Amino acid sequence: MGPPHRGHDRPPDRGAPVLPGGVLTSLDGLYRAEYGRVVAVLIRQCGDVDLAEECAQDAFAAAVERWPSDGVPPSPAGWLITTARNRAIDRLRRESTRDARQRAAALLDPGLPEEVGIVTDDRLRLIFTCCHPALAPAARVALTLRLLGGLTTPEIARAFLVSEATMAARITRAKKKISAARIPYRVPREADLPDRLRGVLAVIYLVFNEGYTALDRSELGAEAVRLGRLLVELMPDEPEARGLLALMLLAEARRPARTDAGGSLVRIGEQDRSAWDAELVAEGHALVRQCLRRGQPGPYQVQAAIAAVHSDGPSPDWTQIKQLYDQLLTMTPTPVVALNRAVAVAEVSGPASALELVNGLALDGYYLFHAVRADLLRRLGRPSEALDAYASALTLTSNPAEQEFLRGRIHQCAREAKPMA
C-alpha cells in the first residue's frame, strides 16, 4: 500500500513519476513504517483528525513529486513530519476566520514547548487519546487502526468481520463524535490510563494481527511489538499488557516458518520449528511464567499460554490447549474462540466431535470457519464436502499465501473425490 491521496483509502493514479534508484520502494516502505507517526504528531499538535490525515497524505504526495529530482533527504521521516506540519499551518492560516484558528496554527509552531506527560511515545499517545470513553469501544479501535497504521477501510472491516460500508460508517461517526463532543486530543492523566487499557490492548493486537495475517506487512507486527513493550514499561503492574506482549512475541517467532518456498501458507503443526526465532520464544515463555505467578488470568494471558504450549517441545499437549480454550471461552464467549477451541477438540476427541461444534457456529462470512470445517470433513473421509468448504473459504480471503494453500487443498480433495475407474 503506497501513500494515499486525500479522501481515498488507496492512492489514485495522479501520473506520479517513476522514482529512480529504488526511491519508490523506499517511499512505500517509509509510508508503511511512518504514516502513523506523522499523523500522531499532527493530531497531538493541532487536535484535528481530518486535518492531520490530509496533511500527512499531502506530505507523502509531495515526496513522490520532489524526491526523484531532489533526492531522498537525510532524515526522510523528519522531512515528512516537517512538510505535513507546514501544510497544516498554511491551511489553518488560510482558512482562519476566528481567533481560535490562529491559536491552533500557533500551536503548530515547532518553537513552542510540547505537552509530554506520562506517555512520551507519539503513537502510543495516539492510541490512548483515541480510546476516550465517550467513543464506543469498536469505534475507538477502528479509528485508531485507521490513524495509526494507515489501514484501509476494507482491511479494518476484515479485522472486525463486518462489511466495508458498515466500517466506513463507524469511522465517520467516530470522527463526528469527536468533533461534536469536543473530545480533546491530549495526553490522558495517569489516573485515566487503566480505564482505557482494554481499548489500547485491542488496538495493538489488531494492528499485530493485520501484519501477521497479511504476511507482507511485517512492519505492522514490528510496530505492534514495539508498542507492546512500551505499554509494559508504562504499566508494569498490568498483567494483560504483559500477556499481550507474550502472545505477540510467540506468534512473531513463527514468522520465518509460516510459508514454504512457493509462498504457500504452512500450518503450525507442519512448520519447521528450527526456523522459529528461539530468542523470541524464550522471551515469550518468560513473560507467560511471570503472568502465571501473578495469578490474575485474563484473555490475552490465556492466549499467550496457548501459544506457549504450542511452542513447547516437538509437539503440543492438545489436552492442555483444550483446557486453556475452555477457560478462554468463559472469559471471551465469541464464535471465533469457539472455532479455535473446536480445533483443539478435534485433536483430543476426534474430527467428528469437532465438526458438530463447528457446524453450530454463526461464522459464515469468516474464511477460517470454512477452512477449519473443510479440514475436518477431509479428515472424516468426505472429500466432496470438504472441496465445497475449501472453495467457500477461498472466496473469503484476499491473502495470496492463504489462497495458494486453499487451492492446494482443493486440488487434493478433487483428486480424492474423483470416482475410481
From TrEMBL:
SUPFAM superfamilies on file: Sigma2 domain of RNA polymerase sigma factors, Sigma3 and sigma4 domains of RNA polymerase sigma factors
Native source organism of the sequence: Cryptosporangium phraense
One GO-annotated biological process of the protein: DNA-templated transcription initiation
Family: Belongs to the sigma-70 factor family. ECF subfamily.
Gene3D superfamilies associated with the record: 1.10.1740.10, Winged helix-like DNA-binding domain superfamily/Winged helix DNA-binding domain (1.10.10.10)
Protein's recorded name: Sigma-70 family RNA polymerase sigma factor
The RNA polymerase sigma factor 70 region 4 type domain, residue ranges: 127-178
Keyword NAD attached: no
Keywords: Sigma factor, Transcription, Transcription regulation
A GO term, aspect molecular function: DNA binding
Domain DUF6596: 196-291
InterPro entries per the UniProt record, alphabetical: DUF6596, RNA_pol_sigma-70_dom, RNA_pol_sigma70_r2, RNA_pol_sigma70_r4_t2, RNA_pol_sigma_r2, RNA_pol_sigma_r3/r4-like, WH-like_DNA-bd_sf
Residue intervals of the RNA polymerase sigma-70 region domain: 30-96
